[in-house]
Amino acid sequence: MTEMKENDLNENMEGIDLLEYCFYHKFLLVEELVLQKNFLKLHHGRCTVIGKLIQHQNGYPVLENINQSSILPRACNLPEGTVNLRLFKFVTADVELKFGQYCEVCGEVVLWNPNSPRDNWLSMTPRSAVELELKNCDKAVRKQKIEKLCDTYLPAVNIFRVDYIDCAVELIQRHLKIRLLTSNHKRNN
What is the number of other CB atoms lying within 10 angstroms of the CB of residue 13? Predict the structure, then answer.
């Protein structure tokens, strides 16, 4: 088994590694949250995400991905608006949402069920949901329960703050450069 670094997957629930809660607003791409289908690897905690704020056809706010062809290789770039991330305003009802604007959303990753209007929002982080689902669970049933959880719920962000920005691609580029520098520094130490 490989040695885990501090702040990586650090807790073990009977053989299942769970992410530690992130108390700072870690920068993530919309694509990183939306396309992560394994809740054991999905970011757990606070985050900041940059995208275009739009109103979904069903009336709720979402954050669309932004075309990053100027900073990412073509194979890694999705056209703008290909994927979107559901947003909730449960702790910040006073935040004004300006649709059609680029913005930086600070919040917490939560889960929601797009197929059930009554049980639409799960007021838990992905880790909490996994812990609850696997509590007192037989090892043989774990994989099925995690798959069912991943099939039922999608990641979303509960908004803490929204900052509207003009140069979204440039800000994403700077965040990615900081991430690269930080990861290179950690690797060298």
Answer: 15
Question: In the chain, where does DSSP find H-type helix?
Answer: 30-34, 126-134, 139-152, 168-188
Q: How far apart are CA 175 and CA 26, in angstroms?
A: 10
Per-residue pLDDT of the chain (189 residues; tens, 9 = 90+): 233 333 333 333 555 667 788 999 999 999 999 999 888 889 999 999 999 999 999 889 999 999 888 877 788 889 899 999 999 987 777 888 999 999 999 999 998 888 876 556 666 677 777 777 777 777 778 888 888 888 888 999 999 999 999 999 999 999 999 988 988 767 776
**134, two tokens:** 């696997």
Ordered by where they begin, the domains of the chain are 11-175 (2.40.50.140)
The model carries a pTM of: 0.81
Distance between CA atoms of residues 144 and 169, nearest Å: 39
